[in-house]
Every structure is written in structure tokens, then in C-alpha cells.
Amino acid sequence: xxxxxxxxxxxxxxxxxxxxxxxxxxxxxxxxxxxxxxxxxxxxxxxxxxxxxxxxxxxxxxxxxxxxxxxxxxxxxxxxxxxxxxxxxxxxxxxxxxxxxxxxxxxxxxxxxxxxxxxxxxxxxxxxxxxxxxxxxxxxxxxxxxx
Length: 147
Fold this sequence. Notes:
single chain, mainly beta, Jelly Rolls, 5-stranded antiparallel β-sheet, 2 helices, 11 strands, globular
């Protein structure tokens, strides 16, 4: 990690979908081999369909209810509430799904690239072009920085 501290006043939340935003606190999640810290927050309930990541992810629910389940499809009965402030890990390539309540903040740490691979491919043109909303956001931020 860079060793620089991110001040609260410097945090800029970027929308990734209706009711959800993210911020990169450290590193570059898109860069292979780069350690990163990102946070997601929600203003409404968000259901994340079954997916997997190519690298381990280390997660902490910072605020609000967050539930996680394992398997090839989203199943309400398989969701397990995660205790706030208690870190846990999801190993690379393990298929999982989640539900965030409104007001939830989740921190994810790992080593890039952070990529989301959905078990059942998403169909909207926007999601097909960049299947990970985080990567779409990073690309927009990089493009804006060069203007």
C-alpha cells in the first residue's frame, strides 16, 4: 500500500448503480499485483447475484446489515449475516452472492485485478461492456483526470 492516509474530506463516492456507490481508498484495483482498499455503500437494499473473483478478497462490514451466501445462484435461505467489524475472507474463484441493506458500508481489501465474474452473465449493454461496475468507475475517473 502507498502509506498515504486518506482524509475523510478527500473521499469521493462514485455511483456504481442506483443506490450503490464506491470509493478507492488505496491502490489500483484494476492493476495486476496492486494491493487495494475499496469501500461500497448503499442507500437501498442491493442484491448481488452469484459471482466469483480471480483473487482472494478480505471483507469487513463497517456499518449496517450485510449478508453473504455461497453457491451458483442467489438463494435467500443460504444468506448468512456477517457481524459488523469482524473481518472475513472469500477465497479466489469461490462462488458467492450477497445482500446489502440500505445504509451498509463494506470494505474490501485484496490484490488486483479486482474483477467480478457473474455465474449467470448479466444482459444489459452497459454491464456487458464492463462486467465490473468498479472497473467502469475507475476508467471514468482516469479519463476525467486527463481532461
